[in-house]
Design brief:
The chain is mainly alpha-helical. The protein is built from ten helices and no strands. It has one domain: Orthogonal Bundle (Cytochrome Bc1 Complex, Chain D, domain 2). About 60% of the residues lie in helices and about 0% in strands. The protein is globular, with a radius of gyration of 16 Å. The two termini are about 25 Å apart. The chain binds heme C. Heme C binds near residues 70, 71, 103 and 143.
Length: about 150
């Protein structure tokens, strides 16, 4: 409930912001495709994830996990690689596979730069398409089996 409320507020805020600077955004997309790509991922994160995980990604432990640092460490374990797009909040979001791929890569770069293995290969859309079809009905159990419980 609280999440939905925050989400709606955020939705409005992002839309007002977007409406106020369409020219700046279009220019960015033409001049800096890379930057525009990550700007889109950031906006999609704000619209689809931040209602619960908060705009800064810190979440609200123990109810909503943080997206900082631990995900980067998980990327060193094969079974955990696609975990972040298989949790219900990701897998069932209304984002397209391409958009979710960009958001997942953005979360790792933005919130997990210090812990991400140096040889990490960013997700491809094909990988996310496959993984998403195997959404986790019990993410906590999967996490404990293949990684560990949340730090209390
Ligand atoms: C309605 C609230 C909500 C929304 C919206 C949401 N999440 Fe979550 N997320 C959770 C909760 C609660 C968990 C804990 C596992 C569970 O119960 O699903 C979680 C777990 C996660 C985890 C695992 C973290 C860990 O350390 O195990 C990741 C990664 C994640 N979410 C990413 C996302 C992304 C990406 C989005 C947006 C596309 C998103 N979530 C949207 C509530 C949400």
């Amino acid at each position: 409930m609280a999440c939905e409320k925050i989400n709606n507020k955020l939705f409005a805020a992002v839309f007002i912001k977007r409406g106020a600077m369409p020219l700046a955004l279009s220019l960015l997309m033409i001049v800096l495709p890379g930057a525009a790509h990550s700007a889109t991922a950031r906006i999609n994160y704000l619209l689809h994830c931040s209602g619960c995980h908060l705009p800064g990604g810190q979440g609200n432990p123990p109810n909503v996990p943080t997206l900082h640092q631990e995900l980067g460490r998980m990327m060193g374990v094969a079974a955990m690689r696609t975990y972040l797009v298989r949790v219900p909040g990701s897998a069932y979001s209304s984002l397209s596979d391409e958009e979710l791929t960009a958001v997942a890569n953005w979360i790792l770069e933005e919130f997990n730069a210090e812990t991400l293995p140096a040889d990490f290969v960013p997700f491809s859309a094909a990988e996310v398409t496959r993984a998403r079809q195997e959404s986790l009905s019990d993410p906590l159990r999967y996490r404990i089996e293949h990684w560990r419980d949340y730090e209390q």
